[in-house]
Amino acid sequence: METAHWIETLRTEGARMTAAARAVSADSPVPTCPEWVARDLIRHQGGVHRWATSFVADARTEPPSATLEEVAGGWPGDEELGDWFEAGYLALLRALEAAPPDLQCWTFLPAPSALAFWSRRQAHETSIHRVDAELTAGRSAGQLSSIRPEFAADGVDELLVGFMPLRSAKLRADEPVSLAFRCTDVEGSWVLAIGPEGAVARAEAGPGQVVGEAAACSVSGPATNLYLALWNRGAYETLEIEGDRAVLDRVGDAMGLHWTDD
0.85 exceeded by the pTM? Predict the structure, then answer.
């Protein structure tokens, strides 16, 4: 996907989360994040937006040192949460749109450019937490705002290829083993190889290509459902899981995610 598409998705998802933030009580439990109520969710995502803005707008090259609350300048009152959240994501949009293509600033995942990294990361961060906010506001899984399959497949790629290696210290296997993931409605297939040195994922090119034939476990389904399941936001029943589920569960444990529908 191009940077402009990520920025437009952030605009859409930010507006959706703003609407959910204004429709929910601050003390409402977040079903997908049991340790949070709506207040925590909105503060978190609004703080992350301001945190990201600080790197993009100021071209900061050093790793972060301040807490989200410090970056935000303190948390708003419950009655101000919706307006405060909206102001934060709009400021991030302005910073991304004003940034030069060759922006130099701190990032934490491989990307073609710093601008591409922050646009992509914040689009997906906001998308997943928008799902949390809508569920908290009382929507059922079938009533959630839609996620484009191509964007969802991009999110699967970011998680597997970008984030998974960061968890390699927790995800190792004396005997190499692999898992295959595939979108059934748009192009997107990946193989995750786990060995003594950790885990590495690679994307497989070619629409309709069958991958991971020797994989211990394979997971396939519509891109949006795979995306939400990988981020532990549901849709498990729509995925086809074949092979050794124990291998998949090990990945979930390492990522703090779980692919069971118990």
Answer: yes
User: 3-state DSSP helix/strand/coil percent for the chain, to nearest 5?
Assistant: 50, 10, 35
3-142 under CATH 1.20.120, yes or no:
yes
Give the model confidence (pLDDT) of 83-139 as tens digits. 999 999 999 999 999 999 999 999 999 999 999 999 999 999 999 999 999 999 999
Contacts of 259 (CB under 8 A, 6+ apart): 219, 229, 230, 236, 239, 241, 248, 249, 252
> Range(s) for CATH 1.20.120 in the chain?
3-142
Q: Which CATH superfamily is domain 150-255 in?
A: SCP2 sterol-binding domain (3.30.1050.10)
Question: How many angstroms separate the CA atoms of 216 and 226, rounded?
Answer: 18
Q: How far is CA 8 from the centre of its chain?
A: 16
